[in-house]
Amino acid sequence: MNREVVIRTDKLTKQFGDFIAADQLSIEVYAGEIFGFLGANGAGKTTAMRMLCGLSVPSSGTATIAGYDVYSQTEQIKKHIGYMSQKFSLYEDLTVRENIRFFGGIYGLSDKQIKEKSALLINTLGMEQMAAKLVADLPLGWKQKLAFSIAILHDPDIVFLDEPTGGVDPITRRQFWDLIYNAADRGITIFVTTHYMDEAEYCNRISMMVDGQVKALDTPANLKKQFNVATMDEVFFHLARSAKRKGD
């Protein structure tokens, strides 16, 4: 990880009528960093990520992703990022190999690159016996690992992961994080949302969202030290309780 800023937001806001889903978000994410975007369900994490990916136009504020503006350069942004949604974005009526080939084409890879990367991906995941199976027939954990691997098939600068480990057992979650570490070792910046507070420990730095606002941003160790607690659950509890008092 270096100090080159690849994601920068300043008072980035998304409002739906009278409801402010993401409120004046100001963050910086460094190249090669695993950056956790934590918060309870409904805290505004997905809304913020959709703005950063160029999928939703902000109501106000500014942001640049890999040097490109989220208002005027969304197509350039999409060429430099990978994205894995909560639904994994795979086509369940296609086989594993067909999904890889399809998304490789979408990412602009040549036939030779697709062939080489398909073989490497299938071998790395140990899916040789599953390559001809429909994605619909795969267990959830395998779908997650395949979706992530396809999201970085084109070696993007940044990959956005929206609640990637939801609904799976702790062992599969740990295996998924091994894939994240491997991607970070290759120089890919990881921006991951989660409501599992223990996953904060796997990140270089984290921001914590409460009611659409970033209430804390630092390393897990520094945040635990700041609040004099032992776990990230306790950090979040302090932040949520403080926000509730202000609301009252």
CATH H-level homologous superfamily name: P-loop containing nucleotide triphosphate hydrolases
Q: Using DSSP, what is the number of strands?
A: 11
Number of domains: 1
Question: Biggest sheet: strands, sense, closure?
Answer: 6 strands, mixed
The topology string of helices and strands comes to: EEEEHEEHEHHHEHEEEHH
CATH topology: Rossmann fold
Summed over residues and divided by their number, the pLDDT gives a mean of: 90
Radius of gyration: 18 Å
Protein name: ABC transporter domain-containing protein
InterPro entries: AAA+_ATPase, ABC_transporter-like_ATP-bd, P-loop_NTPase
Domain ABC transporter: 7-236
Pfam family, one: ABC_tran
Throw out a few tags for this protein.
single chain; alpha/beta; Rossmann fold; six-stranded mixed β-sheet; P-loop_NTPase; ABC_transporter-like_ATP-bd; ATP-binding; AAA+_ATPase; ABC transporter domain-containing protein
